[in-house]
What does this fold into?
Amino acid sequence: MILSNQYWYFSSALTEDQCNKIVELGLDRIEKTKQSGLSTIATTAGNNHKQAMNDAIAVNDKSIDELEKDLNIERSKIKDKSYVRDSEITWLNDQWIFDLVSPYVQTANERAGWNFDYDWNELFQFTVYHKGGFYGWHTDGGGDRLSAYRRFIPGISSQKFGKMKYGHTRDHKMVGKIRKLSVTINLCKPGDYEGGNLKFDFGPHAERERFHECTEIRPQGSIIVFPSFTHHQVTPITRGTRYSLVLWVLGKPFR
It folds into this structure.
């Protein structure tokens, strides 16, 4: 899909107090989750995280070609030898945060010229990237009906590692829908961390630069919105800690 605008952002949209309140809430949820004996380690669709592997290699910000060369193995086996994500997460469902963020999503959808139809969203994901943390190249979802969420039926739907398989949901309002827009909010001040930039890959035939690090959203409270099928990553943190808030907006598959 050719887009005139690959993303749309708002610099310092949220105030320092609002950001700090979200961080405080997220860290409290993470601590309570740990106290309950549950893990806060972020996983991916294939449960591909370093805690599930022995002697695995961090993908960091490397491409498939670079990993193939470094690991000296077949491309199809790279996933078995590496992990693509290193962070902690929790989920937030506080209405006041939705009230803050939703108008920016609507405005970005209109001003960028996408005008995607959407009618629902997932919970907010609060993410903590410590030094060395990263999220390698990925997309948040596809655009066709095969990418749509399916209903999870206890006792009937298959599970993986004792968990609901990726692409399934208990929320009936998500069934049959895809992620159309992704939203990231930077909750930190620029000097709180180094590295940790949102980075896009617009493809080898892009008319503009292929790779772009979004340093324009480094100011605290900045919001960026982009189509969920866009390849992106979070580059490794080299100093400090990065706090972010992510939201996915859902709608029926593209036709």
Summary: The chain has a mean pLDDT of 91. The chain has four helices and 20 strands. The helical segments are 16-35, 64-71, 78-81, 95-111.
